[in-house]
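Re: the multi-chain job from yesterday

Posting the exact lines I submitted so nobody has to dig through the queue logs.
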Amino acid sequence: MRFVLFAAASACVILSACGGSETSQANNAQANIDNDASPPAEANSTGNAMVMLAAPPTRAQALKVMHDRHEAMEGLGKAMKTLHRALDSSPADINAVRAQTSIMASTAAKIPGMFPGGTGPDVGKTRAKAEIWKQPELFVQKSKDYLAAAQAIDAAARAGDLTKVMMLHDRVDKACKACHDPFRAPKS
Amino acid sequence: MTPNRGAEQPVWDLPIRLFHWLLAALIGFSWWSVKNDHTDWHIWSGCAILTLLVFRLLWGFVGSSTSRFSSFVRGPRSVIAYLKGRWSGVGHTPLGALSVLALLFAVSVQVSLGLISEDEDGIYMGPLARLVSTDTSDTARGIHEEWFETVIVGLIILHVAAIIFYRLRGKHLTKPMITGRAPLEPGAEPMRPGKWWVALICLAVSIGIVRWVIAGAPPFS
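And the result, structure tokens for all chains:
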């Protein structure tokens, strides 16, 4: 009985995982078809390549980009965590809040540039999924959403408007997750 | 093969069976939800498991005869006697009791670590994560992951393996955990049930305690 339950649960998970990747690939294929079919000039086949930076010339340089990217993302996570606690302390520590939102806004601006071609999972250890380079428009759009959220919360923090910072906090969280869910692989 | 000729008698009461199957389901759900980017569901699932644990602890003192710790927690001499075939009784065997205690302990550690953990992106925090530093919270999450992958998964494998082992020797353990009844040796005393209203009080107390934890504990931070 237990075995059956476990087997069924595992099967469901495996199936759902397969379904997920198939769906995203299907979406991707659909997006390509849409791009090819839709007339606007920027949506042609070279449009995809223009969105992301070109690959670093050597493997060592690619690994350097991946390493720096990891550090920057870790720093971003740390800023998010520190922000949580700074907002929770009473009275909220506005200087600590400003320091974190400033890191968030400046790192957010760099995100699309941190993912040039040739820095994916086929090159080295990274949780960046190959989907990033298969769906560059979507990826760049998600990073822009995050940038907008990070800049908004940073502006509110610089203006000293804590109520607005708290309100925008949720938007920032959602923007992080909206890009991580499709484009970041789980920890292995 | 031990012949089970006795008539079916109650051995596990409803609270114990619900506790058992809900715990199994929620552990599975916790694992699935966190692996599939539903960290918020994962945290709620952990809070539900905490409620179950507190309930089980209380029911272990005031519940039915087979649910009480005093009825099944035994010393090494009883375990040896059981292994030599010199044990008769209802409910957890002296060896099975060790497994129960190990599982309860392992899940309690897991939940405690989860309470003070935060996710790697700083989006989700366990209900008590605010009481500790960012570094402590991140360390707790690391141990929370390791503890599951080694201790909890290990105990689950052992648990299922033991059930299969007993099944091969002719003893059904899964069905009694569903129906609550098992054939007993002639003369064995069946379970003495607990009182339903005591179970409700235990449930209310455990929900109350978990609400307090969710609120951020001591002074409702």
